[in-house]
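Sequence in, structure out.
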Amino acid sequence: MRHKKYLIFNGTPGKIGEEVRPMAYDKRLIAGKLRRWEKYLQRFELPTWEELPDFGLYMEQVITLMKQYLDYLPPELKEEQFITPATINNYVRTKVMPEPNHKRYFREHLAYLIIILTLKQSLSIAMISKIIPMGISEDEVKKIYSTYVVRHAMARKIFNEQIRMLAGPILDHENCSEMATEQTEDVIAMAAVMAGFQRLMSEKLLLLDGRTLEDGDTIEIEQ
């Protein structure tokens, strides 16, 4: 049996020899979207521990609150089911977060959910569980969550700086770095590659938890 050959272009299979339309971007539109995203992230803040309600919320109230807290995606990319009762029940069933107290969720539960939902695009659930494990006291959850809120703010600032450096020509910045590009396709590719490297680094470091230089594999740099 002969197999047809296909080319993958922009996520869409195409037959070899078939003319494929190249991606086309309006620089003004891209620049406007990047500036809008930058301003959004500058204003965005995760709620502090003290701002999380602790009077016991029912499932539908939790879902509504999470959508308000984590309104990350623009309308054209937003999933209709960002978080569902089944999602939360699965986290509880697999012991990723504590069980509700008489079907009500308190500050501790919300802290777990926020960390899980903001990291699940970057790390596996198993890795996230190393960042905020089960079986710890509420004081420990508070400490982990409060530190995470600060780190989240720092990461947003670094991300914005990277985009300004990478997309300087698109944003009409002066004194652009050597890494800067005016091609939207380059920005997309480099951002995706950096995200992959960052995930790998996070996972590699998380796997070193509890290990020492003696049992943590080699640190020698290959020549």
